[in-house]
Design a protein that fits this description.
By secondary structure, the protein is α/β, with parallel strands linked by helices. It has helices at 26-32, 50-63, 82-102, 119-139, 161-170, 180-186, 194-208, 242-252, 266-281; strands at residues 8-12, 37-41, 66-70, 107-109, 112-113, 147-149, 157-158, 177-179, 212-217, 219-223, 226-231, 255-260. The chain is built from 9 helices and 12 strands.
Amino acid sequence: MVKLLSNVRFGPAGNPLGYRGETVNVCNYIHRRGLDAYEYQATYGVRISKQSALKLKKNSKVNDVRISMHAPYYINLSSNKEDVIERSIQRLIQSAKAAEWMDAYRIVFHPGFYTKYTPKDAMVKLHGAVNILNEKLSSIGVSNYTFAPETTGKKSQLGSLEEIIEICRTHENFTPTIDFAHLHARSGGGIKNKEDYRIIFEKLENELGLKSIHSHFTSIEFTDKGERRHHALFEDDYGPPLEPLLEEIAEVGWNVTVICETPRLDEDALVMQKIYNNIIKN
């Protein structure tokens, strides 16, 4: 296996389990643990003030911790209700403002649901909503943002790999978040080995020209409808397999941020990092 030099970072989705301080200082703790990424969770609303966001930015720079933001869960840009789309756009505007303050390099969000639409019609609704979103951001002078729509884990959600690629190919300031567990659950356990991961990386490179990605990983339980529950690494036989992914990351040589979404957060992020470091040493 040929290993290429790349910038691969690991960190938790939200504050580490053992951290009891203020979020504005969380990167001190993350750095001391040996991790170098952090996804700020605004999943129940963007509540951080500009002053606090600027402090978090400074704290991340001092500690060389790469920050991303997860926008609120209550976003549906493909809804059949116009008021839901309007509120979703406002939540993304709030997220973009806060991301600019804290210098979050990605704004992760779940694009929406099919509801009563066909996947094609749901995508048409989403494209229209994104056009409005970008126009509104431009009108208020917010420009330093990158939205990162996430591959989703439920079959009722808009967010297959192909759909995420289409969104990012169509709109400026958009690039994917690849949640490998969601792809695994959505496909009914379709990720089994390194070749399955390689297909994902090749598709992103061929269709979007990418050489870097923001990603999520967890062990995941699923049903025939898709994602059910996140689990800790190596808990029972829940997939997708971790080591083949880390081998592919080492081999492909991309810049990759891996955000750990298991219930063990930073603990499992350190496990991922240790396995990856062993791979690139051997």
